[in-house]
């Protein structure tokens, strides 16, 4: 069961539910998280951005070897962009490893750092996808 507390009313309802469950079972285990994780819309946008960036890097002749100095010429994929470009910058910006953990507002911060870096170093800039583009 997941309880989302985002108002005074939902806080009261959650306390009532927890109290009721505890009184009935005498054991309740909670896992708390704070802030809002990325939305489904942001998840779709992240994957679309990573795919668009992979396509742009590949069409510019910037394979993974040229961008991250590997020993083998490897074309970019959405997952490779997410793993080797997005996640390290996300970790540096937010301190978080999983792309499900940053708050919604942190996505634009991560994007700005990555986009600026690729623009300055390789002349590559990929716009964050609009909602209509990936649905």
Biggest sheet, open or closed, and with what strands and sense?
none
Provide mean pLDDT, rounded: 87
Order of helices and strands: HHHHHH
Uncertain segments of ≥5 residues (pLDDT<50)?
none
Q: How many strand segments?
A: 0
Structural class given helices, strands, pairing? mainly alpha
Count of separate DSSP helical elements: 6
Explain the overall architecture.
The protein contains six helices and no strands. The chain is elongated and about 65 Å long. The longest helix is centred in the middle third of the chain and has 20 residues, at 40-59. The mean pLDDT is 87. It has 135 residues and is mainly alpha-helical.
Write the layout of secondary structure elements.
Layout: H1 8-25, H2 40-59, H3 64-68, H4 78-94, H5 106-122, H6 131-134
Helix pairs in contact: 2-4, 4-5
